[in-house]
Amino acid sequence: MKKLSIATRKCPICDEENIEILYNLNMVLDNDFPLQGNHKVVKCEKCGFIYQDSKSTLQDYENYYKNFNKYPSSPTIYEETKELFPYYMNIIDKFGKKDSKILDMGCASGLCLQFFKECGYENLVGIDPSNESIDELKKKGIEAYVGSVYCNNELKFLENKFDIIVLFGVIEHLFDVQNAVLNLDKYLKEDGIIYITAPNVERYHGYNNSISYYFNFEHINHFSSTSLNNLMVKFGYVNIYTDAYNLKLGDCSVPCFSGVYTKKDRSSDELKNDEESVKSVKKYLESYKKNINEQKKVIDDIFRKNEPIIIWGAGCVAMELLSRTNLKNCNIEAFVDNDRAKHGKKFLDIEVCPVDMLYKFDGIIVICSSLYSSDILNEIRSMNISNKVLILN
Ligand SMILES: [Zn+2]
Hints:
InterPro entries: SAM-dependent_MTases_sf (IPR029063)
Helix content: 25-40%
Number of domains: 3
CATH superfamily of the largest domain: Vaccinia Virus protein VP39
Pfam family, one: Methyltransf_23
Shape: globular
Protein name: Methyltransferase domain-containing protein
Strand content: 25-35%
GO molecular function: methyltransferase activity
Organism: Clostridium chromiireducens
Strand order of the largest sheet: 7-6-5-8-9-12-11
Bound molecules: zinc ion
């Protein structure tokens, strides 16, 4: 049966308040975390857009990305996205020239811009909210500014300057996508193009990725080419190119798509109802229920035996399992993680430690990672320890 409700966060594309709730996702977060641990995966009843509804505000997200931004300390993620740079450049080559002026909005530490530079593009600019990221880019000799995707009064001199604006893996994170497009529009020349990539919700069901990867608190918009078109036509853009590709991250393959847009004469409020996205999410959730039941059995077994465990991976998978399952009642001695930024933080009053504490531990190691279970397993093998290991994701 359909669970209808009124949204706290209105549809980011069409501002509709009426939603269908598809899934309630809860996560245990550490105390100073700026975002809400519970959110709903919902479908807009008017345009069919799939997005996350929660009580977190735009300010909460700004605070999160400024102060809790995990990307500068996660070099692996950069390394893996590198594989896609030639693909991105192929598409840019179709629409631009080597002297085209290109803006990478949300450029992180700018590896992609660096690749474009090596391939002969000369006029490159990056904007990102992170000071560290922008410093790194400047060191590489690329023009870069600290700024937001929403509004930058101090960057007025960049308005109407760009032939191409790229937004790679950014739009799924944005609380206010309409404001973001309005802002991008300011920087674009009249005959320029905007190139956007995002995970493709229409294909979620074909991949066995964990629920806390698809619907974590960062991925709050779930676009399809139909819903992205709905957003862009509202601001006077027309789609001139669409393509599907996959992003390989650790053990996962993430279905994504590319959309290229140019300005047309007038904007339109004509929404196409996106019917495919909700079908995909429902199919995905249906198959995920089986996985949930298997997880539950494994966790209940650990709980019954009261064996000491250490959880490797203080991220979304653990946060979600701690909230939904008996894992929180198990005999957890510690969390361990390779990410130094997480050391000393606490979940349910249990500390996150460096992984070398496993040398002093005899119990079960429970791997909680949506992307890197294989890497962690290899690391455990290379440590020459003989603990029993379980994987939950
Ligand atoms: Zn809508």
